[in-house]
């Protein structure tokens, strides 16, 4: 396809119809190729096959044409040359750490980073001599760079407390010291922010969320435009055996053409709920990057074009946690569960007293595809039963 269309048009259009026009059977949908063994026509071809090449196939773990189709579409969305697929968002985090860090080198994580990623870094510190330190995502100038710092991890906004970080400034500070920048871009999903334009060298995403869209697939991706970094990531990806199932790729490929429209529609709905919540008694603060009450809101205004439908609220400090737990249980349309990105709305309480010692409990909302007025009515009845007594 010529480059005259937007990436969103290219994403939706089938890839290779031109070549099949006139065939007896031609579908808008690519077929799904499964394999463990890939067979070669002769020994010479077997010896010459390059496992690194994205157009050659040598073993099922390293991908089939279905895997490549999804990788190519994700690279198109990110506007970069290379994307790798992994069995979860967390394994995408682990690939980046394991491919880029070695014993004696340091990774800097934001204090609000996705907790299992932090736990992984701490495990690598204890068992493999990698150093880990933390920084405040709202104070880029205070990031504790050291001579052995190799990687700066950025997650913006944080997926529970929602602080929006200044990726551009963080990347400038890191690059000035020869430090690589990796961004967890799950919240912006390749839609709301271009992390590469702002300076990230590598981006990972949990495709488990909006891209899969059905609350039924786990997958992650790692993208970069840098050939040398890609080589390093690809080699570790192969060595760790981190292949993904073509069936799961097919499920994501099915949801991908409409994930942007879902994201944008859910953004409108979530902002309506967040704004309504801002004026409710019992709610001390709404942590939605598009609202001025969110730390880093000015950065969101400058660097983002949209918002995910994931945000949090802090309750007034005098409201007991037991009432907040009952509030979550009293919701009928929001279900209690981790993750996000599917059709169904979710709510979950988090303990954030380490970050907000003087505030009340936090509840994170994920707004799905229900009618937002029904969601507001649901929150209203749950607040009336448990908080505003
Ligand atoms: C910001 C963020 N990064 C990474 C992950 C990990 O993704 P997965 O659940 O696919 O392992 C999550 C999952 O909740 C997340 O919220």
TrEMBL record:
Signal in keyword set: no
Gene Ontology MF terms in the entry: cysteine-S-conjugate beta-lyase activity; pyridoxal phosphate binding
Obligatory cofactor(s): pyridoxal 5'-phosphate
Reactions it catalyzes: L,L-cystathionine + H2O = L-homocysteine + pyruvate + NH4(+)
SUPFAM superfamilies: PLP-dependent transferases (SSF53383)
An example Gene Ontology biological process: transsulfuration
Record flagged with keyword Membrane: yes
Signal sequence bounds: none
Transmembrane intervals: 84-101
Modification N6-(pyridoxal phosphate)lysine, positions: 209
Keywords tagged on the record: Lyase, Membrane, Pyridoxal phosphate, Transmembrane, Transmembrane helix
Pfam families documented for this protein: Cys_Met_Meta_PP
Family, per entry: Belongs to the trans-sulfuration enzymes family.
Protein name: Cys/Met metabolism pyridoxal-phosphate-dependent protein
Organism: Methylovorus glucosotrophus (strain SIP3-4)
């Amino acid at each position: 396809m010529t480059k005259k269309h937007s990436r969103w048009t290219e994403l939706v259009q089938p890839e290779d119809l031109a070549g099949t026009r006139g065939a007896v059977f031609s579908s808008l949908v690519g077929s799904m190729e499964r394999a463990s063994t890939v067979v070669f026509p002769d020994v010479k071809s077997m010896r010459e096959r390059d496992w690194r090449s994205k157009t050659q196939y040598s073993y099922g773990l390293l991908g089939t044409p279905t895997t490549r189709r999804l990788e190519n579409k994700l690279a198109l969305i990110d506007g970069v040359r290379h994307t790798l697929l992994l069995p979860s968002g967390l394994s995408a985090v682990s690939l980046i750490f394991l491919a880029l860090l070695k014993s004696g080198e340091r990774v800097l994580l934001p204090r609000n980073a996705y907790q299992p990623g932090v736990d992984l870094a701490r495990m690598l510190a204890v068992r493999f001599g990698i150093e880990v330190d933390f920084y405040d995502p709202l104070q880029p100038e205070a990031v504790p760079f050291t001579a052995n710092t190799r990687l700066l991890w950025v997650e913006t906004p944080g997926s529970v407390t929602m602080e929006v970080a200044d990726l551009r400034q963080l990347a400038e500070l890191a690059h000035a010291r020869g430090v690589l920048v990796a961004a967890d871009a799950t919240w912006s999903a390749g839609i709301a922010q271009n992390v590469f334009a702002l300076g990230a060298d590598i981006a990972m995403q949990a495709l488990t969320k909006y891209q899969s869209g059905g609350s039924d697939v786990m997958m992650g991706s790692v993208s970069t435009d840098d050939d040398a970094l890609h080589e390093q990531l690809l080699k570790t990806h192969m060595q760790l055996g981190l292949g993904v199932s073509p069936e799961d790729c097919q499920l994501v490929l099915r949801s991908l053409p409409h994930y942007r429209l879902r994201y944008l529609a859910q953004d409108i709905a979530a902002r309506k709920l967040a704004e309504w919540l801002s004026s409710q008694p019992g709610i001390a603060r709404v942590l939605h990057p598009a609202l001025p009450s969110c730390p880093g809101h000015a950065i969101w205004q400058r660097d983002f074009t949209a918002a995910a439908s994931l945000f949090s609220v802090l309750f007034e400090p005098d409201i007991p946690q037991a009432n907040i737990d009952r509030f979550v249980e009293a919701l009928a349309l929001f279900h209690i569960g981790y993750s996000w990105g599917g059709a169904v709305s979710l709510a979950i309480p988090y303990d954030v007293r380490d970050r907000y010692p003087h505030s009340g409990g936090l509840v994170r909302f994920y707004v799905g595809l229900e009618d937002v007025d029904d969601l507001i009515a649901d929150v209203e009845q749950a607040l009336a039963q448990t908080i505003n007594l």
